[in-house]
Amino acid sequence: MVIELNLFKSIPPSQDEVILRKERHQTRLYLILLVIGIVTLTIFTSARDQSIIVTVESPSLTNFIDLYEQYPTTLTCPCSQITLQYNEFISDIKAQYYEICLSEFITSRWINLQFIQNPARVFFTNDIRYQSQIHFQLLSTLCSIANQTIEDNLESFYQTTFVTNQVLSLSSFQTQVNLIVEQFKTNLPESYQRTLQLIQMNSEINQFIVPANSKFEYITDEYGAELYQLKSAVNLYSYRIICNLNTDCSCVSSSNGDCILQTMIAKTAKTFNIPGMFQTWFPLQSVLISTLECFYNDTYFAEIIRLIDRRISSNNFSTLQLSLLSSNDSQYDQINVLANKLFVQSWNNESSYQSYFNQCHPLTCQYSYQSRFNIIYVITTIVGLLGGLSIVLRLIIPPVIISTSQIRNYMMYCCRRRQTDIVSNVEAKPVKQGKGMKKTSLVISNILIGF
Fold first, then answer.
1. Where, by residue number, does the polypeptide cross the bilayer (predicted)?
2. Sign of the alpha-carbon dihedral angle for 47, 53, 56, 62
3. What is the dihedral of CA 59, 65, 70, 71, to 10 degrees?
């Protein structure tokens, strides 16, 4: 029976009833405290948040996306391949060029165009009929160099290594790709500018003879025939005339590009200026400071078309048209501004998150979440603590029972001694006859009953 249960039997077992009673008291207290401890642990463990860690083997992209939506802060998926090349997940980075680099004005059909010669006796090197070929040849070269620069840098870009220890979420992946592409676009102009500077330095150092940095003199031969003689102005740097766009002076030479003349169409009656086109000492500088506004304007462009010698060249050309990506003012931008952007209006790129995930190839994914009232966790926790609780109770209960018994015995001893003292005091008083005798006896009886 439970009443006779004894979990604290002495060794060797005792038959003393007093000892057995103490052991049964210890057992009862042990069971009571053990039940209280188990109930307390159960309530505390059930109400407490537990961190549950789950491992998913060989997750697919769909699994990863679903898990990330549920556990964005705790999900980790280590990549089995931590280094990837950009071309494995970034593809088709394409430049959308400005209209000039996509037009016929940089093709041989326009560059080799034959114009009707100027009937006037005056020869102007800033006439578009003489400036056009080298001007658009250089413009074509700038477009070609820009395109080649982009292609070369793209080839190097695609071989760049991307390091990723963990699988990135879709939003983080897109952010990283955008940053990578933006960095690529930022670094491109530096490479292109170095090429332009090399061309400019080459022109200055070698001092190539072209109509722009030469002068023509009108002379007559010994028979009185009128001739034009080309004289090099390479050695005339010290005699250059400094002009600007608002003067009509004749610029012979300029070593630092400070001589600028408006490109024009020389006519017998008057000249017709070509807006946006200029001539300087260096042909490349002439191109860079010019704009293409007249090639967007039907009126100005019609004046140029009229100069084409239809017997030799076709005049089937049309003006440039602003694309949807262009601003209304882009036609007035200097070619130098366009060149700094590599003649690129916009960029298009595609990236594949699926390819990135496949190359990363995570073998496992882990995530954790907080849970309450997890029966398995509660049972394992209680079982784990039950042994320790039992040992602690077995160690402290016997001393507690012994101490309690000693305190009880001491209190009983004190009570008995007090009773004895009271009785002795009562008996020592004189007892009167009659009613007083009865009253004294009643008091003694009440005192004894009270104890």
1. 29-47, 375-402
2. positive
3. 60
- pTM here is 0.65
Largest Cα–Cα separation, the chain: 190
Contact (Cβ atoms closer than 8 angstroms) between residue 114 and residue 312: yes
**pLDDT at residue 251 in the model:** 46
Strand partners, 94: 348
Tokens 């501004």 correspond to 337
- The β-bridge partners of 430 are none
**What is the secondary structure of 393-416 as a DSSP string?**
HHHHHHHHHHHHHHHHHHHHHHHH
Cα 54 from Cα 75, distance rounded (Å): 10
Q: Where are the domains of the chain?
A: 17-48+375-450, 90-167+177-351
> Is residue 253 scored above 50 in pLDDT?
no
> Across the strands, what pairs with 419?
none
- Residue 304: what are its φ and ψ, rounded to 5°? -70, -40
- pLDDT for the residue 5: 74
Query: Within 13 A of 51's CA, how many CA atoms are on the CB side?
Result: 5
